[in-house]
Amino acid sequence: MEKRRPVVCILGPTGAGKTATSLGMARKFPVRVINFDSRQVYMDFPVITAQPSPEERAVCPHELYGFLPTTESINAAGFVDLAKQHIDAAGENELPVLVGGTGMYLQSLTSGLAPIPDIPDEIRERIRKRAEVEGGPALYAELEKVDPQYCKRTHPNNRQRNARALEVYEATGKPFTWWHNREVPPSKYDFLKIGIKVDLEELTPLLKLRIEKMLESGAIDEARRAWERCPDESAPGWTGIGCMELMRFIKGEIDMDETIRLWAKNTRAYAKRQLTWFKREQDIHWFSPHEYDKAVKFVGQWLAD
After folding, report:
1. What is the per-residue pLDDT across 1-47, written as a single tens digit (0 to 9) for each?
2. Which residue segments constitute the domains of the chain, with CATH numbers given?
3. Beta strands per DSSP E along the chain
């Protein structure tokens, strides 16, 4: 059997210290960092989405950060294709290190995706427009009739996932669940999952400080420039936490105190969802944010085995 390529995954909630851990590894191994955070893909929001700074990127190559316009979206399948390209492009002696907090992206890469055929553009665009006009709950109600099992895994307000499930059903005549239950080919990668574990109550004040630092680093001006380029509140890039709150601020809908309150509240709720998601994973090796040396040593032992 052909030897599988080792790939390290650093995961955890927003603000836990994943970037710092990846840079700690880069100082010990020749590392190529690959993003798997669905917000950090947007080029207009490097500060608001906490993308690695130029100084941090100078430590080692960083891929899939800030490449997507605000007007465009990327789903799990699109991410997997791009991530595989960058993993395969890494040098023979480079260690691909995936860093991020979007559990669906990571699961799709590590567990594989159902072999769903390409969806015709006409169907995708029609359902996308329906989602914008009718909203997620209307699509969810329709989805309950054709794929009630998948409805248990999504939410009425998750417009993107509901639209994806409906477009697959319309294009193939088979429910999304039917495709997910099909056998997935084995991966050619050997994944090691490193989790950065932080208690939610401990993380909450750190998230507030993080928002303050983003504001000091120009988050408001960043949002204003993005709004000048894309004054469309329904554009995918504006749906991110921090982006939506600052958009409402620059439109004059809320003041700065309310902006910060909502930003902190929504960030905490997102971190809680991330922690819940990753708790379901059985093969994560957890370290505290300050245990760089232990995590790096563990990776070194894994590579040596």
Report:
1. 568 999 999 999 999 999 999 999 999 999 999 999 999 999 999 99
2. 5-113+185-304 (3.40.50.300), 121-180 (1.10.20.140)
3. 5-11, 31-35, 62-63, 95-100, 189-196, 284-287
Average model confidence (pLDDT) for the chain? Answer: 92
CB 97 within 8 A of CB 31: yes
| CB 101, CB 277: distance < 8 Å | no
Kind of pairing, strands 284-287 and 189-196? parallel
pTM of the shown model = 0.82
Go through 249-283 and write b for each residue having 16 or more CB atoms within 10 A of its CB, e for each that does not: beeeebeeeebbebbbeebbebbeebbebbeeeee
pLDDT per residue over 112-124, tens digit each? 776 777 788 888 8
